[in-house]
Amino acid sequence: MQMTDSRIQMTDGRIQMAVCRRQMRVARLTLVAVLILLVAVEAGAQEPQLRASVDSSEYKIGEWVWVRVTAEVPSGISSLVPAVKDSLGSFELLSVDEVPDGKAERVWNFKLIAFDSGTVFVPPIPFSYTVAGDTVQRQAVTNMVFLTIHGVSVDPQGELKDIKPPLDAPWKFEDFLPYLIALVLLALAVWAYRYYQKKKRERELAYVPPKPVIPPATVALAALRALEDKKLWQQGKVKEYYSEATEIIRRFLEDQYRILALESTSDEIMQQLKPVPEAQSLLKQFRSFLTTADLVKFAKYAPTPDEHEAELRWAYEIVRTMAPRPEQQPDGMEETAEEAVDVR
């Protein structure tokens, strides 16, 4: 009897342990179910509610279809944007514009167009959104919208008409802007070209080519040759002959040696010639040349023909002797006085 009682007690203990395990398993499953339910409720509370609608259920082929999407956005959602590209099913997407309405819900207008007739539907429009504090991109969609697209009815007995021309879109400022920029650039180019031409003409008009520098000896020898060709003393113009001869020599001395000869007397010229090395061998000729000219001009002296010719020879000799040699002339002045002017 004792063994039987102990067996009964062991059996009861095992039953109680099994019941306890079952209760614990049920408690765990209940807890998991509650947690799953809470997560589902939380997720549903964080998902935006999207609703798509149209103004009409029937459209003509090629006609614009405006689909209005209204979204109720919970406070925990940080961003919500359409996730469509250029088409929705059989519809081409022309534009998407969000309409500010100042309410808690957000509204988008989808402009669609279809070129297939019959009963069609706008597929669910996807939207991407993120929850505050989470960077994972989630997606929500709208409901489907069923439409009827009617084709163009053709009367077989009717008159055939040409295709209508494209509609003329109104011009906007951005349409004119490229032409305005091109016009401004063209005007600037024309102005710059005219300004350049004007400045170029001004420079050409203002430019004065430098006069060639003629050695004083060349000028003097040419003037003596011209005086000789005039034959003044042969015509009885003795005073003019001597005046021109002395003026030629005086100008030569002033230009070549910076001697103030044009406004100086004969004696003053002789004093200024004494320091000049080139004039040392010609002082006697200078004295005779200047004295004879002074006598003719101021004392009415009448020289002989030989004296007339001697006066001119002295003038030639003075110039040729005092003219700088070729190695003393400036660069580019390679001709001698005799080569530049044909003189005797």
Low-confidence stretches: 328-344
Rounded radius of gyration (Å)? 61 Å
- Percent range of helical residues: 40-55%
Question: Roughly what fraction of the amino acids lie in strands?
Answer: 15-25%
Q: Which series of helices and strands comes N to C?
A: HEEEEEEEEEEEHHHHHHH
Structural class: alpha+beta
- First and last CA, distance: 181 Å
Biggest β-sheet description: 5 strands, antiparallel
- Number of DSSP helices? 8
- Numbering strands along the chain, what is their spatial order in the largest sheet? 1-3-7-6-5
Number of strands: 11
Q: Please, what is the average pLDDT?
A: 80
Query: What would you call the shape?
Result: elongated
Q: Which properties best describe this structure?
A:
8 helices, Immunoglobulin-like, alpha+beta, five-stranded antiparallel beta sheet, three-stranded mixed beta sheet, 344 residues
Helix and strand arrangement:
Blueprint: H1 2-46, E1 49-54, E2 58-60, E3 64-72, E4 77-82, E5 87-88, E6 91-99, E7 106-113, E8 118-122, E9 126-131, E10 138-141, E11 145-150, H2 173-206, H3 216-230, H4 238-257, H5 266-273, H6 283-298, H7 305-322, H8 337-340
Parallel strand pairs: 2-11
Antiparallel strand pairs: 1-3, 3-7, 4-9, 5-6, 6-7, 8-11, 9-10
Helix pairs in contact: 3-4, 3-7, 4-6, 4-7, 6-7
What does the model show?
The chain is an alpha+beta fold and 344 residues long. Among the domains are: 49-150, Immunoglobulin-like, CATH 2.60.40; 216-340, no CATH class. The chain contains eight helices and eleven strands. The protein has helices at 2-46, 173-206, 216-230, 238-257, 266-273, 283-298, 305-322, 337-340, and strands at residues 49-54, 58-60, 64-72, 77-82, 87-88, 91-99, 106-113, 118-122, 126-131, 138-141, 145-150. The protein has a five-stranded antiparallel sheet with strand order 1-3-7-6-5, with no helix packed on it. Strands 2-11-8 form a three-stranded mixed sheet, with no helix packed on it. A three-stranded antiparallel sheet has the order 4-9-10, with no helix packed on it. A hairpin with a 2-residue loop joins strand 5 and strand 6. The longest helix is centred in the first third of the chain and has 45 residues, at 2-46. The radius of gyration is 61 Å and the shape is elongated. Mean pLDDT is 80; it is low at 328-344.
